[in-house]
Inverse folding.
């Protein structure tokens, strides 16, 4: 089959090449992949994977083989999926990591959701947000645009932080109550920070945290270290916390929640770039250069299973 495989010599370390058909375990179905989506981490670190690896985690398509253990959707179901080896014509994926795509939701929109959407949902669930102030850094990006919408849905006061005024476009319409450049103009403490940027901005965001507040350290889109001033991590009163995030366990139910929101018109997939998968170097470059507002989705050329 055809697949986007790791090749350190290719632009962005990715090449459209050949890969063996997936061999599903008992709890895995086989998906005929129609669309895939890119995430910054996968694109930035593709070259660190072994050459020939089928890359990517987000896919949507049609089930062509049900799981041997009887779990999960049957043949012909439209599903969104999360798992390794997604950027291929066919993918074997755990039935616990898929969700059926409701009628009326485009498969291309569904494929944008798994990694970025589930990350936004799970980090927002780290503490109560109703009526609380939530700061989202990197708000113009893939995780960020979902986080803004979901935080607003959850009743938070949403502060969306972007790198430039231009990148703030559309965020108020998605539910942001304040759109700020960097952390300028935030005039009251925040209860929760979802941070996708890291670096000096993370250290500055820590200073904005209310007693008892927490930072979810999702990613590190910038390439600078964070330096914390002496005693800045010392605090008398309700503890402030900073947590790593990397929970990819059984994403299926949360993916179903996101798809239900999408079907109900409460969550927009925010697909900003779409094209055939042959154009992966162009899409990856645009993502790394901060020229995509939301998600990049690639259409997979169908191929017949042997
Ligand atoms: N822990 C997990 O499970 C998990 C899951 C998903 C993603 N992540 C990580 O989360 C991060 C965001 O992922 P994503 O897919 O949402 O990426 P994305 O769509 O590229 O968004 C990243 C955002 O970060 C901002 N940014 C980039 N470089 C910056 C810099 N030097 N200074 C300030 N802001 C900068 C950009 O802001 P502007 O647009 O305003 O310029 C951009 O919108 C990545 O590090 C990714 O690896 C982690």
């Amino acid at each position: 089959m055809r697949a986007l495989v790791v090749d350190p010599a290719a632009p962005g370390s990715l090449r459209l090449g050949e890969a063996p058909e997936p061999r599903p375990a008992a709890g895995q179905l086989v998906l005929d992949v129609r669309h895939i989506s890119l995430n910054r981490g996968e694109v930035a670190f593709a070259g660190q994977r072994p050459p020939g690896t089928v890359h990517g985690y987000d896919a949507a398509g049609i089930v062509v083989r049900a799981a041997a253990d009887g779990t999960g959707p049957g043949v012909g179901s439209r599903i969104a999926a999360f798992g390794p080896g997604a950027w291929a014509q066919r993918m074997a994926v755990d039935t616990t990591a898929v969700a059926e795509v409701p009628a009326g939701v485009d498969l291309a929109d569904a494929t944008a959701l798994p990694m970025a959407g589930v990350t936004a949902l799970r980090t927002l669930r780290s503490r109560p947000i109703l009526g609380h102030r939530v700061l989202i850094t990197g708000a113009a990006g893939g995780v960020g645009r979902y986080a803004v919408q979901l935080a607003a849905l959850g009743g938070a006061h949403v502060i969306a932080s972007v790198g430039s005024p231009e990148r703030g476009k559309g965020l108020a319409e998605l539910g942001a109550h304040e759109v700020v450049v960097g952390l300028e103009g935030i005039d009251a403490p925040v209860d929760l920070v979802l941070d996708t940027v890291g670096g000096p901005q993370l250290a500055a965001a820590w200073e904005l945290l209310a007693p008892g507040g927490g930072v979810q350290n999702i990613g590190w889109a910038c390439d600078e270290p964070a330096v914390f001033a002496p005693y800045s991590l010392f605090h008398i009163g309700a503890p402030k916390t900073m947590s790593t995030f990397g929970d990819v366990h059984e994403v299926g139910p949360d993916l179903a929640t996101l798809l239900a929101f999408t079907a109900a018109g409460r969550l927009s997939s925010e697909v900003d770039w779409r094209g055939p998968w042959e154009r992966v170097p162009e899409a990856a470059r645009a993502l790394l250069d901060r020229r995509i507002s939301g998600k990049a989705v690639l259409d997979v050329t169908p191929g017949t299973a042997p």
